[in-house]
Amino acid sequence: MAKKTQNSTRRSRKSRQKDRPGWSKLLLTLTLVPMVMGVLLILAWALEFDLWGAPEDQIVVGFLFILFSFAASNAIQRNWRLSGGWALLAVADLLVLSWLEIWIQVLSMLAGAAGLALIVLEFVQRYRDQQKARKRA
Length: 137
What we know:
Elements: H1 2-19, H2 22-30, H3 32-46, H4 55-76, H5 80-98, H6 102-136
Helix pairs in contact: 3-4, 4-5, 5-6
């Protein structure tokens, strides 16, 4: 029965990929660029290699690139809840590191908590859907 569910999941993924227009596939591929840049910046920071500015800036910018990549790729795939969650985490990161006023720090923590809640909610929903599909099969 597990094979049946896996095969139907594979088929539905393939059919969704075929339905996507070419520009959507191109944009989805282009979202890998900021992710790779973010990983490279974090690796450069870990290896104490300065690409620009202070080393602390590299990890922050790298992390923001990765969060932007997640938000953009989910938006292109029309996963709005995940896209919003990743975008809120990026905004929270930017706010907490840019301003030192307490009210902005609290606002950024609320935005980060809301973003994390959206991401967790989406993953819980998908897990429940998967469990229901397995019970039906």
